[in-house]
Amino acid sequence: MELEHPDDGIDTFCTAIPKKEPVEGKLLLEPVRNLSRKPSKHWEDDDLMPLVKLLAGRPYIDGRGDNYEGANAFNMISPDFDAYLDKHDHIRGLIDPTYVVADVGGNEIPNFRLDNYPQTLPQPTAFGGTNYI
After folding, report:
1. Structural contact between residues 49 and 6, judged by C-beta atoms closer than 8 angstroms
2. Residue 75 CB: number of other CB atoms within 10 A?
3. 71-125: per-residue pLDDT in tens?
C-alpha cells in the first residue's frame, strides 16, 4: 500500500500490504521478550524484524482474553519501539498504523473520531496511554 510518494518530501514511505485480520496479542509475547533482553539503545533492525513482520499491515492488535498478556507486553516496550521507528524511517515504512483492542471491563468506549481510518470491529479503545489505540 502506497501512502506517500518518495519524492513528496515525506520521509516515511509505507510499503505494508494491508491485511484484514488483527494480529493476536499472544503472538507478540515471545518477540517482545526476546527484544526486552537487550537495552533499547543497542537494538538493531534485525532485532525488531520479528515484531515488524507480525505488525506489518495489520489493522490492530487484539488484546482481548488470552491475547492480553502479549498486547500488554508490547505496550510496555512501545515507547522504545516508537522511538526506534522515529529514527529509522526504512523500518517505520514496513508497518501500517497499529491499533489495540482490549477488554475494558464494561466501560463505555469513547468515539475517537478516527475519520481518516476504516471502521474496525470491535471499536478501538485507548490502551495503556500509548499512541496505539
Report:
1. no
2. 22
3. 999 999 999 998 998 888 788 878 865 445 555 566 665 555 555 555 555 555 5
Q: How far apart are CA 53 and CA 51, in angstroms?
A: 5
Spatial separation of the C-alpha atoms in residues 36 and 77, rounded to whole Å: 8
Q: How many domains does the chain have?
A: 1
**The C-alpha cell that represents 53 in the structure block:** 513482520
* Structural domain boundaries enclosing 120: 1-133
Spell out the SS3 assignment of 73-125: HHHHHHHHHHHHHHHCHHHHCCCCCCCEEECCCCCCCCCCCCCCCCCCCCCCC
